C-alpha cells in the first residue's frame, strides 16, 4: 500500500475533526485553500449549506463545482395535448391549476370531425388537420390518432415539452393531495439522472434521500435527464390481452419513487404521461412504428413504445439519462369490450418479440455524436435488420428519415 | 368486483435459515419473535469467543464462534473475516437449507404506512418465489405482484421471467450511507416508504447491503462471500458491496434475477461516522477501480456453475486488481479458499461429507 501523502493525512485529520471545527478562521488561508481545492472536500463543506463556509469559499476565490441546472422557467415549457375526443372541458378544468401558467398546444386528431370544446382562460393554440397539411404539405408520416401530438412537438418552440393523454386527470398521492404532474416532470428533468450505477434509495436528488454506501463518488454527478416517463393510477397502460383478462384490475398502488433507467436497460416508454427536453431529443421523438390496424385506443398503438426504445438507445449512446416513476396521473376507464375487438387483429405481440432483441444488441457508432446522426444511423440499421422481418419496420425506417427532414425544416428552432 | 383468492405465502420453515452475525447481544430477536420463531437460526459470533452470547428462549439455533470456525475450517478459516460482520458468510456455508435470510442485530420490525408491522421475511419469500424480469424494465415494477402486471409493449416471450436468486430489502430510519455522507447529513432519516419491488436490469451493478437480505443458497450461495474485512485488513464496510458485485455479475451470466425494494426493516443504530470513515477510506478510492472492473468482466461460456464463475472471477481479480493494491491478491486467494471450503462443507448430493455436522447447543 502506498504511504499516505501529506495532503491525504491533512484530509484525514480535517475530516476527523470536522464536528469540532466551529470556524475555520484559525487555519492559515493556504491550508484551507488546499483543502477546498479537492473537489470532494469542497462539496462536502458546501453541502452543509453553512453561510460562513459559502462566504469563505467565495472570499478565497475558489472555483465552485458546476451545478447541473439552476431550474426550469415556465417560459421554457410547452404542454402538448393530443385531442382524440371533442369535449375537453372536464380535462382542462381539472388541470387548470397546473396548466394555467404555461403555453399549451392542442393538436386535434385529423380524423376527428367534431369541433373541439375547450374552456377559456388558457394561453392555448389549437392545430387541426388543415394546419398539419398546411405546414407540412405532403408528408409520408401519418399524424392521425395518437400520433397527432408529434406535430405538436414539431411546431413547439420551447425547450421542454410535457404531454398528457386527454383521458387523464390529476391523481391524488398516498396522503390525498393532488399531484402537480407538471411540476414533478420539471423536477425530474432539471435534476441529474444516474444511469451508470443503480441507487437502491432511488432518486438521490430527492429531499430526504441520497446516494447509498457503495455508490462510487465519481458517478455522483450524474448526467442530464432528457426524458421523464410518468405513470398512471386506475386504468394502467396494459396491452389489449391483459385488459381483457384482467378487466376489473385497477392500479391503486402509489409508488413514491423516481428512478433512472440504467444504461443498457430497455424500457417501454408510455406516451400517456411523458416529458422531455425537446431542444436535444426532438429529432428522436417521432411517430415511427405504426401498427397495421392502429386505432384510437392506446392499446392499438406501439408508436410511443418504439419512440421510447429509440430515445433510450440514443440517450445511452450520447450519455444522457431517462427517468421513470412519479408523477402519476389518474387515467379513466376505457371500454374493456373494445379491447376484445382489438385483439382480433393485434400484431403487437409479434412486433415486440422482434423489436426487443434488436434494440438490446444495438450499438451506435462512436462517430454519431448528435441526436440527428444517431437517428440517421438507427433508421438505416432498422431498415437493414428489421425491414426483412416485417414491412411495418421498413415503414418505420422511412418515417424516421422523414422526421429527421421535417425536424430540420420545421422543428429545429428555439424561442 | 370478484377478486381471486390470494394464495397464502408458504412459511418455508424447513427450507430457510436465518443467519445473524453478532458481537453484542441478540435482544433484537424479541421484537422479531412472531416472525422468526418458526425458523432455524444460525448465529455467527464475531469477536471474543470467550464471551457468551445470550439467545432469547424459545428459538431453535446453532451458534458458531471463532473457535468453531477455526476448528471446522482449519487453515481455510483464514478466508473468514474477524472483527467484522463479514464473518456472517460462514453461516451461509454451514447452512443446509435452500434459502438464507440475513439481518443485522440493530434492525427491527418496521411499520408500513397503514401502521401495520411488516413481516419482512414473508415479503422476501414472496420475492424469491416469484420470477425476476432482468431483460426489460417493467415500468409498473414487479409484474407478479397483486394488482400489477406487465405493461403494454412488454414482449410476451419475456413474461415468464427467470428464477430469482437475491431479494435485497431496504431500511427506514437510519439509511445506509457511507461515512462522508453521514458526516454531512448526520440527522437525515429515511422516512419514505416506496411501495415497490423491482428487478435490477441485466448488466447493471448496484450496492448490495447485507442488513436485510435474502437469497436462494442453491442458486447463488457460493457467490455470497463477504470478503476479507476487519481486523488486520486495510478495509471494512465493503463486505456486502463486494459480495453484491460478484453476485450480480454471476447472476447476469447465469440468467438469474436480483430484486430490490420491499421489504423495509427499521434500522435503529447509526454507527460512528469517524470510525466508519477510517474503515471505508480505502474502499472509497478503490471502488473507483472496482466498478469499471466489474462492469467489464466477461465470463467464459464454460463457466456454467456458480463455483466455476466465482473461480474465474478470482482469477480476474488477481490479474486486473492486483496492481491496484496487494490486498486484492490476498482477496483473490481467499476467494479460492472460500470455494474450496464451500465445496468441502457442501458436497454434491450423494457425496460423502468430510466435515463434522454443526454443533447442536
Automatic annotation (TrEMBL), chain A:
GO function terms (MF aspect): UDP-arabinopyranose mutase activity
Any one GO biological process: UDP-L-arabinose metabolic process
Alphabetically ordered keywords of this record: Cell wall biogenesis/degradation, Golgi apparatus
Domain of life: Eukaryota
Principal subcellular localization: Golgi
One Pfam family here: RGP
Keyword Ion transport (UniProt): no
Cellular component GO terms held in the UniProt record: cytosol; Golgi apparatus; plasmodesma
InterPro entries in the cross-refs: RGP_fam
Cellular localisation: Golgi apparatus
PANTHER family: UDP-ARABINOPYRANOSE MUTASE 5-RELATED, UDP-ARABINOSE MUTASE
Annotated family: Belongs to the RGP family.
Protein name: UDP-arabinopyranose mutase 5
Species assigned in the record: Digitaria exilis
UniProtKB/TrEMBL annotation, chain B:
Subcellular location: Golgi apparatus
Class of enzymatic activity (EC top level): isomerase
Enzyme Commission code(s) on record: 5.4.99.30
GO biological process: cell wall organization; plant-type cell wall organization or biogenesis; UDP-L-arabinose metabolic process
UniProt record similarity statement: Belongs to the RGP family.
Described purpose of this protein according to its UniProt entry: Probable UDP-L-arabinose mutase involved in the biosynthesis of cell wall non-cellulosic polysaccharides.
Protein name: UDP-arabinopyranose mutase
Source species of the chain: Digitaria exilis
Lineage: Eukaryota, Viridiplantae, Streptophyta, Embryophyta, Tracheophyta
Amino acid at each position: 500500500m502506498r504511504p499516505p501523502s501529506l495532503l491525504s493525512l491533512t484530509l484525514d485529520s480535517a475530516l476527523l475533526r470536522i464536528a469540532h471545527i466551529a470556524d475555520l478562521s484559525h487555519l492559515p488561508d493556504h491550508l484551507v485553500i488546499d483543502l477546498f481545492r479537492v473537489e470532494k472536500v469542497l462539496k462536502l463543506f458546501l453541502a452543509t449549506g453553512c453561510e460562513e463556509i459559502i462566504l469563505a469559499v467565495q472570499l478565497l476565490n475558489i472555483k465552485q463545482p458546476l451545478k447541473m441546472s439552476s431550474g426550469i422557467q415556465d417560459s421554457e415549457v410547452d404542454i402538448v395535448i393530443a385531442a382524440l375526443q371533442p369535449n375537453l372541458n372536464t380535462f382542462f378544468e381539472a388541470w387548470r391549476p397546473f396548466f394555467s401558467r404555461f403555453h399549451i398546444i392542442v393538436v386535434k386528431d385529423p380524423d376527428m370531425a367534431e369541433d373541439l370544446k375547450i374552456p377559456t382562460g388558457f394561453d392555448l393554440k389549437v392545430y387541426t388537420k388543415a394546419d398539419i397539411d398546411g405546414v407540412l404539405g405532403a408528408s409520408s408520416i401519418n399524424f392521425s390518432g395518437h400520433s397527432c401530438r408529434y406535430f405538436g412537438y414539431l411546431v413547439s418552440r420551447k425547450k421542454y415539452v410535457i404531454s398528457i393523454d386527454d383521458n387523464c386527470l390529476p391523481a391524488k398521492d398516498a396522503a390525498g393531495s393532488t399531484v402537480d404532474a407538471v411540476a414533478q416532470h420539471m423536477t425530474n428533468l432539471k435534476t441529474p439522472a444516474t444511469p451508470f450505477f443503480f441507487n437502491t434509495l432511488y432518486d438521490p436528488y430527492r429531499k430526504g434521500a441520497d446516494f447509498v454506501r457503495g455508490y462510487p463518488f465519481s458517478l455522483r454527478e450524474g448526467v442530464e435527464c432528457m426524458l421523464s416517463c410518468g405513470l398512471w393510477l386506475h386504468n394502467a397502460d396494459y396491452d389489449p390481452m391483459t385488459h381483457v383478462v384482467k378487466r376489473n384490475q385497477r392500479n391503486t398502488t402509489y409508488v413514491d419513487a423516481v428512478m433512472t433507467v440504467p444504461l443498457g436497460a430497455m424500457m417501454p416508454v408510455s406516451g400517456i404521461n411523458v416529458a422531455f427536453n425537446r431542444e436535444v431529443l426532438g429529432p428522436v421523438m417521432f411517430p415511427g412504428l405504426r401498427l397495421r390496424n392502429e386505432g384510437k385506443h392506446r392499446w392499438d398503438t406501439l408508436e410511443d413504445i418504439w419512440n421510447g426504445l429509440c430515445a433510450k438507445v440514443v440517450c445511452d449512446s450520447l450519455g444522457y439519462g431517462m427517468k421513470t416513476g412519479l408523477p402519476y396521473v389518474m387515467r379513466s376507464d376505457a371500454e374493456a369490450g373494445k379491447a376484445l375487438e382489438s385483439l382480433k387483429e393485434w400484431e403487437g405481440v409479434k412486433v415486440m418479440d422482434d423489436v426487443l432483441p434488436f434494440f438490446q444488441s444495438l450499438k451506435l457508432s462512436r462517430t454519431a455524436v448528435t441526436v440527428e446522426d444517431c437517428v440517421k444511423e438507427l433508421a438505416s440499421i432498422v431498415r437493414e435488420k428489421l425491414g426483412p422481418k416485417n414491412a411495418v419496420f421498413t415503414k418505420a425506417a422511412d418515417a424516421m428519415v422523414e422526421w429527421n427532414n421535417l425536424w430540420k425544416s420545421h422543428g429545429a428552432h428555439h424561442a | 368486483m370478484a377478486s381471486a383468492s390470494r394464495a397464502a405465502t408458504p412459511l418455508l420453515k424447513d427450507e430457510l435459515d436465518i443467519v445473524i452475525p453478532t458481537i453484542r447481544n441478540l435482544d433484537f430477536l424479541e421484537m422479531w419473535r412472531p416472525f422468526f420463531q418458526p425458523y432455524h437460526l444460525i448465529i455467527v459470533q464475531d469477536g471474543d469467543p470467550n464471551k457468551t452470547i445470550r439467545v432469547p428462549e424459545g428459538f431453535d439455533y446453532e451458534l458458531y464462534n471463532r473457535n468453531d470456525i477455526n476448528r471446522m475450517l482449519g487453515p481455510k478459516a483464514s478466508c473468514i473475516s474477524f472483527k467484522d460482520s463479514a464473518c456472517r458468510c460462514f453461516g451461509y456455508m454451514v447452512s443446509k437449507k435452500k434459502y438464507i435470510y440475513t439481518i443485522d442485530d440493530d434492525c427491527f420490525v418496521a411499520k408500513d404506512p397503514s401502521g401495520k408491522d411488516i413481516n419482512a421475511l414473508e415479503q422476501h419469500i414472496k420475492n424469491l418465489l416469484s420470477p425476476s424480469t432482468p431483460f426489460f424494465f417493467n415500468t409498473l415494477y414487479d409484474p407478479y405482484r397483486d394488482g400489477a402486471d406487465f405493461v403494454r409493449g412488454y414482449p410476451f416471450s419475456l413474461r415468464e421471467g427467470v428464477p430469482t436468486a437475491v431479494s435485497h430489502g431496504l431500511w427506514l430510519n437510519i439509511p445506509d450511507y457511507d461515512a462522508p455522507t453521514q458526516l454531512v447529513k448526520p440527522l437525515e432519516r429515511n422516512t419514505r416508504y416506496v411501495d415497490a419491488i423491482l428487478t435490477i436490469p441485466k448488466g447493471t451493478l448496484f450496492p448490495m447491503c447485507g442488513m436485510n437480505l435474502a437469497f436462494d443458497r442453491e442458486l447463488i450461495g457460493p457467490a455470497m462471500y463477504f470478503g476479507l474485512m476487519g481486523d488486520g485488513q486495510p478495509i471494512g464496510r465493503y463486505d456486502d458491496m463486494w459480495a453484491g458485485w460478484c453476485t450480480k455479475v454471476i447472476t447476469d451470466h447465469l440468467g438469474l434475477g436480483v430484486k430490490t425494494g420491499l421489504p423495509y426493516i427499521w434500522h435503529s443504530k447509526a454507527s460512528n461516522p469517524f470510525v466508519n470513515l477510517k474503515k471505508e477510506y480505502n474502499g472509497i478510492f478503490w471502488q473507483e477501480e472496482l466498478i469499471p472492473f466489474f462492469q467489464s468482466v466477461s465470463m467464459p461460456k464454460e463457466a456454467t456453475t456458480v463455483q466455476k464463475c466465482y473461480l474465474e472471477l478470482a482469477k480476474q481479480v488477481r490479474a486486473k486488481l492486483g496492481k491496484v493494491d496487494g490486498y486484492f491478491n490476498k482477496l483473490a486467494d481467499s476467494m479460492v479458499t472460500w470455494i474450496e471450503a464451500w465445496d468441502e462443507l457442501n458436497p454434491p448430493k450423494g457425496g460423502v461429507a468430510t466435515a463434522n455436522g454443526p454443533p447442536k447447543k
